[in-house]
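Go through this chain.

——
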Amino acid sequence: MGGIALYYAKKGDSAQALQFIRRARSIDPNSNQLIYNEAVIQALANHPEEALKALKEAFQKGYSPEEGRNDPDLTFLGLRPEFDRLLKQFSGKTKSGN
């Protein structure tokens, strides 16, 4: 379901994407990958505050900040100082096995 949500987000259907990611997260609320996917979907939907919130949650649970830094879908978040602060805050603090 998370993959379907990303597909909808990348094709520009934010409403469907957000609906699918919410359903996926309700099934597995602790999945790091789904939390990160939500951040990407929120970013693609032009919801930067929600994207940053989900990204922070993913990093807190051990998702790699390097992946966030290099993800082209998060490029526009790079213009926000909060994004840079998150990357700095969590660099070097990741757990293995996202």
The CA atoms of residues 6 and 41 lie 6 Å apart.
